[in-house]
Amino acid sequence: MWNKEYLDQIIDRTNKRISTLNQKLLDVKPGEQMPVEDQVTIGSGRQMEVAILFLDICSYSSWFNDSYEAQKFVLTLMNVFMAEMMNIIRDQKGEFEKNTGDGLMAYFGCESNDPTTCVKSAVEAALTMHYFNDHLLTPYLNRQGFAEGIKFRVGIDYGKVTIGRVGIPGGMNSFVAIGTTANIACKLLNVAGPGEIIIGQHVRSQLPTAWLQYCQILLQTTGFVYILNNTPYFAYKYTGRWTHPQIYA
């Protein structure tokens, strides 16, 4: 699906979002009440094999946002960045799970039982996220005087999880992913540097052969071991990046 038409679609909706947000910022005023989230029904859990992606913005807490004007800029920045990350997840048939303020979590494979399809969708999402950030968002931010741009890291793992809602009826509730796969995907962020994509061993094992040239094993392990043979579960740095449409078959 990576082609010029898709890139043009991302550019078009990003420009529209920036224009819309610039108008909405006029309504950001003191004294307004916190928005109330819509209530959602608490359902039962579901067991499935999925690829789980965690994204985390690097050095978010160090951004200057003491003034209201600076906070308005960060609001615009986060809306443009996070909204497009969510769009890319949806484009790759992923399910957005939650936003942690400076990060997000998503599942891939809810509509497919094929492991390779699951992991390809997650890795392609990460590649598209980096392409959008490097080639579309960063130049825009540079023109706005934000020379640093946004740096983020991604962790992806694949395996069995149970996904369900927890919370109280009529109150706070959300989806949660229960299982080692979710734990590993989150912990992979700890060994990821700015701009890096780190994948677990199960993700690498399901990638097409042509993609393996971009997998570099890390000296650090994930910290997890196989119980039966006490061998470590390895992590890999995925170095491939979109540079031109149809880079991969």
Can you tell me about this structure?
Helices cover 35% and strands 27% of the residues. It has a single domain, classed as 2-Layer Sandwich (Alpha-Beta Plaits), CATH 3.30.70. Mean pLDDT is 77; it is low at 28-41 and 245-249. It is globular and about 55 Å long. The protein has 249 residues and is an alpha+beta fold.
Gyration radius from CA atoms, angstroms: 19 Å
CATH homology superfamily: Nucleotide cyclase, GGDEF domain
**Shape call:** globular
Average pLDDT works out at 77
The number of distinct helices, counting runs of at least 4 residues, comes to: 5
> What string, H for helix and E for strand, traces the elements in order?
HEHEEHEEHEHEE
Helix vs. strand class:
alpha+beta
CATH structural class: Alpha Beta
**Into which percent range does the helicity of residues fall?**
25-40%
What share of the residues does DSSP label as strand, in percent? 25-35%
Distance between the termini: 10 Å
Residue windows where pLDDT falls under 50 for at least 5 positions: 28-41, 245-249
What's the number of domains? Answer: 1
- How many β-strand stretches? 8
* Sheet having the most strands: 8 strands, mixed
CATH-level-2 architecture: 2-Layer Sandwich
CATH topology: Alpha-Beta Plaits
